[in-house]
Give the backbone structure.
Amino acid sequence: MRASPITPTVDFDVDGEQHGFLKLPHSHDGSAWGAVMIPVTVIRRGDGPTVLLTGGNHGDEYEGPIALSKLAATLRASDVNGRVIAVPFMNYPAFRAGSRTSPIDSGNLNRSFPGRPDGTVTDRIADYFQRYLLPLADYVLDLHAGGRTLDFVPFAAIHVLPDAAQQARCEAAMRAFGAPYSMRMLELDSVGLFDTAVEEAGKVFVSTELGGGGTATVASVAIALRGVYGVLAHAGVLAANANVVADTDASRTTTLLDMPDGTCYTTSEHDGLLELCKDLGDIVEQGDVIARVYDMTRTGAPPVQYRARRGGLLAARHFPGLVKIGDTVAVVADVVEHGIPVPILQTAAG
């Protein structure tokens, strides 16, 4: 296979703090010899593990970009044992546009792996991560939220894997993230996911869903940033004298959720005005009305009622007030265990 057209302006093997770009040539009407410049930070000291941190896989999800931008501006080489590679805006064209997919080629980066070095801009970004960054990493944390169309209870997530030992390593890292909820997640379509690429490479992988609505909150950013440091500490990359705020709350816990099958999802079969009948975090029983969809073309018509296909916790919901046929209205997850202790983030600076 041909080499990637992307060239980094940083050296991944040099100790210190570097802030540069992944430079992807892109000729277009506005710039004949232009390039997509994807910001990247590398912070390294010594030969410890490598943690790859990514945000902006979808361009309308902001907790990851904010948390990793804060990290890149404050983390120092003296804070680490090993290497941190941070890419806050993974699908940079989509991030600049504030859209889920790229305005250049309509590419959904999280459905484009393993990518192609001779494909579209999105294909080429996926290929670079697949062939050049993943081999460097021992741990990968990919920060997601609901974007403009979904909202979630804040959770870190892993997948059920065929390798039980690998899944156990992923679960330990998920708990170290320390989100209010931790999810064993079912993907309706795992083809082309960054998640799948990382897991098939045998790495420890954790993803998140930390809110939604196309924005971020004080609380969701705090969860993201604390989670990033939690994973770095768990991986052994965060040095004992790291200049970060320690988490001394020994009472912090997470609730373990599970999405075992397709009955977790409720899909709209109508276009219309959406009324959610349960809030995020509510416990629902099988058969409960969780949403109503009203006909927008007339008054007086009764709404269509959507009922929960299983009991559990409402973990996700459609965000906009209007819904279209095929949209996910709600996701109900099993509550597996409450009150799981979260590892305390301890550093000498704390």
Notes: The chain has a mean pLDDT of 94.
